[in-house]
Amino acid sequence: MEKAADTRQRIIDAVLRIIGAEGIAAVSNRRIAKEAQVSLGSVTYHFTTQHELLRESLLHFVAQETQHFTELAENCARADGLDIAGAAEMVETVAGGTAFDSRHIAPFELYIQAGRDERLRAAAAECFAAYDSLARGILQRLGLPDPERLAGAVVALVFGQQLRRLATGSPAEDLVDTLLLLTGTAAGGTGCDAAGRPPSESRSC
């Protein structure tokens, strides 16, 4: 017999797929039950309102993503140490390896919905706080000044570049060059990395 936690997870995964494929307007209890292959009663048992469904789906996605990024950063630091160029390359690897399937499109839809629905804003704020915390930890490890202030800018940059990539098909390498410019300037340079190299040279080494 399937555990309640497994059923709940199947429902959340189904919600993310539906939102990413067709938008929030396509989310209904019947559609979720069909997509998740659970009974209609299971959907209403685990989530009493659609707002709760959207909120929990967004929080779950971000929790998984931040855990994944944190593990990558920790593995990189243990292996070779973490410098600005290495951090940027790590972001490129993650961004370039992220297929914009329905699951990864869904959070953009949910953040936009939070602009329309105040009930989702607390969840959205919690999600961005998690991303900020992750960025701040990496920036501190890099030894950059004022990581608290810079973290929000880095997160905004990554989101903006990913949205641009989603909309236009632009390559993930664009994100790396922009990150190197931002972090190099923050380190007191002129758009170079910690070793004083411009982005193009940093990425070719």
Automatic annotation (TrEMBL):
Domain HTH tetR-type: 5-65
The entry's DNA-binding region: 28-47
Superkingdom of origin: Bacteria
One Pfam family hit: TetR_C_31
InterPro entries, sorted: Homeodomain-like_sf, HTH-type_TetR-like_transc_reg, HTH_TetR, Tet_transcr_reg_TetR-rel_C_sf, TetR_C_31
SUPFAM superfamilies: Homeodomain-like (SSF46689), Tetracyclin repressor-like, C-terminal domain (SSF48498)
Keywords, comma-separated and alphabetical: DNA-binding
Designated name of the protein: TetR/AcrR family transcriptional regulator
Origin species: Streptomyces toxytricini
Lineage per the UniProt record: Bacteria, Bacillati, Actinomycetota, Actinomycetes, Kitasatosporales
